[in-house]
Amino acid sequence: MFTYNLNISAANLLKSVHFLTQCALFPTTTAHQHYNSLTLSSDPTEPKATGSAYTLTLSPDTGFNTLTNTRVSTETHSSEGFISGWLGVIDYPNDQPAINKSFSYFNFSILIDTESDTCTAQSLYGLNPSELSSIKDELNSAIELSNDTTQATKTRTWAHRWGKTQYNKAFNRVKNYLASGDTYQINLAMPFICNDNLTNASPYPLLTKFNGRHACYIKRNDRTIFSVSPERLIRISGQELTTSPIKGTAPRSNNLSIDRQNAADLTASIKNQAENLMIVDLLRNDLSLIHI
């Protein structure tokens, strides 16, 4: 792997990524604090984290624009995490017959280390001087735009989309589905909306506040996504798809007695078993729809 010190402040770049045209930002696997209240990794080889580094991608390779029938893979390293590869979005069907998969290939990434306040470009195949200069220009332009913009913290106003009548109607439908045996568990989720245009809002406060294990920020031409998810719902490694939901599970403990008690509580919990069966069944179905 080739690495290049960009001589750019990590703190300045983290607060400026929303000024990039297209990018993705996520905590590195080596720099994440485990959600101890949710689960501890049972894999002793999995990299542990410090919560101080992020991986940034920008400037997708226009030579690759689809995952179908391609051998170009996502490359990771056991200590550095993501280096190059595919990043994108898979839309849930929403009652539509086709799954929308939109991916881009990135042949390099930038490791943002807040502890050392450094930014390092990393690539498996190397970057020439012209490519490095272009990367620096793009990042410095974003930082300059950020410096020229007032960074006053703004309080967002969110409102629920449903009124009491709509909520009660949806709740009664849920009860009818359960009573009729059509389903055994439903997650009734109500959407909340904000009238502000959040397309170019900074992800920095959200990501640093929640420090989600699988958090991400994706900015594309057609949408901007903010996520602080603690769950890895899909992992693609070669020809293998893995899903690791946490619903219906309990935190692992370094104390064997507590660990065994948690396992016993899960075994005796009808609710947790129902949650786990529901999410495993749902994700098994999702994997059958999106597999390539």
Please count the beta strands (DSSP E, at least 2 residues each). Answer: 14
What share of residues is helical?
Answer: 25-40%
Calculate the terminal CA-CA distance, rounded to whole Å.
Answer: 28 Å
- On the 0-100 scale, what is the average pLDDT? 80
Shape, per Cα inertia axes: globular
Coarse structural class: alpha+beta
Poorly predicted runs are 30-50, 69-73
Trace the largest sheet across and list its strands: 1-8-7-3-2-11-12
Name the beta content range.
15-25%
Number of helical runs? 6
Number of domains: 3
Helix and strand sequence:
EHEEEEEEEHEHEHEEEEHH
Tell me about the largest β-sheet. Answer: 7 strands, antiparallel
Round the Cα radius of gyration to an integer and report it: 21 Å
Give a description of the structure.
- The protein is an alpha+beta fold and 292 residues long.
- The chain has 3 domains: 2-156 and 197-230, no CATH class; 158-195, no CATH class; 245-292, no CATH class.
- It is 28% helix and 24% strand.
- It has a 7-stranded antiparallel beta sheet with strand order 1-8-7-3-2-11-12. A 3-stranded antiparallel beta sheet has the order 4-5-6, with no helix packed on it.
Keywords summarizing the entry:
292 residues, alpha+beta, 3 domains, seven-stranded antiparallel sheet, 6 helices, globular
Give the gist of this structure.
With 292 residues, the protein is of the alpha+beta class. The chain contains six helices and 14 strands. The chain has helices spanning 10-14, 129-148, 164-180, 204-210, 256-268, 270-290; strands at residues 2-5, 23-27, 53-58, 75-77, 81-90, 101-106, 109-113, 118-123, 158-160, 192-194, 216-219, 224-227, 232-237, 240-244.
